[in-house]
Amino acid sequence: MKQAGSRPDGATLVVIDMQRAFRDEGQWQAPRYQEIVPVISRLQQEFNSVSVFTRFVRDEAETGAWAAYYRRWDGMRFPSGSVAWDITLDVPGGAAVLDAPTFSKWGPELAALVPEGAEMVLTGVATDCCVLSTALGAIDAGRFVTVVSDACAAVSDEAQQQTLALLKLLSPMCEVVTSQELLAR
Which pTM does this prediction carry? Predict the structure, then answer.
């Protein structure tokens, strides 16, 4: 058994968008959000400070297609400083926090924290949107991605199952495991 705080397989834990906007009742609520909180907390203990948290923060300029997107989701037009974008989990002192106004959190900042050829362990919300988008970007950039199925939540159970099935097709670049399977290796 690994010691608490060890770094499983040299991987980096990435916690995607565990924010009030996706927890609280509203247009973007992930119904199983609260169910994944204890699982992510357990993984945080194992990864200790080797973790990255992301926040989706709306770009108030709403350029291009984002204008149409926010017309559809008008109730989510919170200003960038709104508490709706606050992370609901305890963020360890050594953890990085990255903000992005995009579904995918993959970009130069996250790439600098996950070395090429290294494993990125993804958790958070929503599996069918920001987790999926981040996974695809990281895979394209040559990172191994592990999605922890019981540490992610989608807009529905059906969307969760469909997205995880899609991600499994990308093996060996992407692996889908339970938290128990991850911690047992």
Answer: 0.93
Peptide bond into 38 cis (omega under 30): no
Residue with tokens 């608490």: 4
- Determine the Cα–Cα distance for residues 108 and 44; give it in Å rounded to an integer: 23
Q: What is the pLDDT of residues 156-184, one digit of tens each?
A: 999 999 999 999 999 999 999 999 999 99
Both tokens of 89, joined, read 């989990």
Q: What is the 3-state secondary structure (H, E, C) of 130-183?
A: HHHHHHHHHHHCCCEEEEEEEEEECCCHHHHHHHHHHHHCCCCCEEEECHHHHH
One-letter amino acid for residue 15 of the chain? V
Q: Do you find a cis peptide bond into 172, omega within 30 degrees of 0?
A: yes
